[in-house]
Amino acid sequence: MEVGYCNRKKTDICEGVCDNEYGSKSVLSMSRLKCALRGFDLRALLILLIGVPILIFVIYVHGQKVTYFLRPIWEKPPKPFTILPHYYHEINELDILDIRWHELSPYVSEFVLLESNSTFTGIKKDLHFKENRQRFEFAESRLTYGMIGGRFVKGENPFVEESYQRVALDQLIKIAGITDDDLLIMSDVDEIPSGHTINLLRWCDDIPEILHLQLRNYLYSFQFLLDDKSWRASVHRYRAGKTRYAHFRQTDELLADSGWHCSFCFRYINDFIFKMKAYSHVDRIRFKYFLNPKRIQHVICQGSDLFDMIPEEYTFQEIIAKLGPIPSTYSAVHLPAYLLEQIDRYRYLLPGHCLREKWVSRNYSLHNDLRPKDIAGRCPTGEHPALSGLYLIRLADVVE
Ligand SMILES: *[C@@H]1O[C@H](CO)[C@@H](O)[C@H](O)[C@H]1NC(C)=O
Ligand SMILES: *[C@@H]1O[C@H](CO)[C@@H](O)[C@H](O)[C@H]1NC(C)=O
């Protein structure tokens, strides 16, 4: 055996080793080692010296991507009834709120809104709604508004502040006068159930006690349709003492295609920056230039990822399918009705209008000059002005 092995590998240098058939075992293996080291040429050493640092650098830069890509190995899809974390909303989303309340207004008897001057992470936050309450005049008679003061405890788990707010919200729902068998919609501001979904549920007998709503997932605006996998929003038949505000999986039932979920659908670049710095995302800002307004604007128009991350999915097939920018949709069909009625005001949410305003303005009375116009009056030919692309030129002056 040994001899045969040596014969196959025999070189001039190693001849001595292989010929030494009668040497002791240890001498033999030492010689083999030397032989192997000599075979190791300079080129391989160079490649090693240059290659390893490059590899380390690549892993440093793309480390998070690598781990996310390998997610199917280290993480299995959630088991039924696993409690999933709440999606935080800490910023100015009055536009989406306006669209949402108008969508639901014909079918909803009571609006409940709780506002805090603190984020879940204990950062001071403006009372956006309170400051702009006059904008929601149409809902005023049906609105139960509550304000809760943050506790501003430093370094505390955000979950604690969140649970305080949730308890306050349960109280507020009671104050609003809810009774058993009323339908209660639980969802974040950026989750918009469609009016006809809620109307359907109002008229159906014997709907499930709890029903999740499947929403179309959009990113940045209604131009980038990601998938239809949003499910956190839910509708409950209210049971006193039993129903609690929650935003995790509570049942297996999901009502198909029941609305829209628009993530990161902000008007101002500064709102993107605030959100990126907010608690649940802060570890993803690996480089300072991620927060550069120009870069953010570019990413918004491309439909790519703000944190340069790999899609969070549970199978390789889905990860690969979602790599790269989200393809644009050019359809404004089946979107919230109020958005299409107010195209001047909400142009940035429509396909083909990705450019955002750079200025920070928390004061929406500034926008009162953007009065609603009658679409039919302005578009006698039936052409949809929101999709004409003309505003790209005007707004380009605003964004550096
Ligand atoms: C937050 O609101 C509470 C209750 O109104 C108030 O006492 C507190 O001073 C506010 N905190 C900040 C930082 O605005
Ligand atoms: C908002 O604008 C109105 C009128 O333009 C002004 O009176 C008010 O002080 C502004 N509020 C803030 C918080 O800037």
TrEMBL record:
Keywords: Membrane, Transmembrane, Transmembrane helix. InterPro entries: Glyco_trans_17 (IPR006813). GO terms for biological process: N-acetylglucosamine metabolic process. One of its GO terms (molecular function) is beta-1,4-mannosylglycoprotein 4-beta-N-acetylglucosaminyltransferase activity. It holds the Pfam family Glyco_transf_17. One of its GO terms (cellular component) is membrane. PANTHER family: BETA-1,4-MANNOSYL-GLYCOPROTEIN BETA-1,4-N-ACETYLGLUCOSAMINYL-TRANSFERASE (PTHR12224), OS02G0594900 PROTEIN (PTHR12224:SF6). This is Uncharacterized protein. It comes from Digitaria exilis.
